[in-house]
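Async update (no meeting this week)

Hi team, since we skipped the sync, here's where things stand on the single-chain job. The sequence we agreed to prioritize is pasted below, unchanged from the tracker. I ran it this morning and attached the output directly underneath so nobody has to dig for it. Comments welcome in thread, and please keep replies under the output.
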Amino acid sequence: MSTAAVPQPRSQAEAAARAGRGAAAGRQTKLSLAAGLLFAALGAALVLLASGRTWAEGNAAFAQGDLRRTVDGQDITGLPGALAIVGLAALVAVFAVRGLGRYAVAGILALCGVGTAVGSLLALDDTAALEAKAAETTGITDTAIHGVTYTPWPWAAFAGGVLIFLAGLLALGYGRAWPAMSGRYERAGGDRPRPRRGRPAPDPDRPEELWKALDRGEDPTGRES
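Output:
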């Protein structure tokens, strides 16, 4: 006489391994989320700070001698600062969308980082802002600029762009597991209807209640006819 095979319960080792994988995935999601937020916020702050600092200095030659001129990041190019702001907006939008939309926004975040870094590097060869400022001072449009030097701030903006790019990569790689904003905002106490308070029972000893009961055709004494 054959006996039916009885399914064996899952072993404790398999359950422990599955729980371990789940815990590891949870830690990975938290770490990637924290790193993405930190990189994007720090990178954008670094770019915006650097954009307002002096990036280049040079001497404008005119008849009376040389005049030292300086320009900041915004004078040379507004691209890094603008892309840093767009990157922050994209980071917020990552949590507002799901599915393919999240990948698209994460890609925009990464591209903002690339554009910020490239724009900062290109500023190291741009003397147009110095020439324009020298022309404003001397009144000569073809004022020659020499002795041009650059400060470390363009490189700081470049580093900020790299951080924004890394935040975009993290959003692309792990963003599908990041939490999403909820469109529901429940009020305290929920949406359950409040129970209506019942009307107090009439007091038969009060004269006005007796008259009301008689008007309704009821026996105020409570006796059945």
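Quick observations from my side:
Residues 44 and 85 are 7 Å apart (CA to CA).
The helical segments are 12-51, 73-76, 79-94, 100-122, 128-138, 153-174, 207-215.
Reply here if anything looks off.
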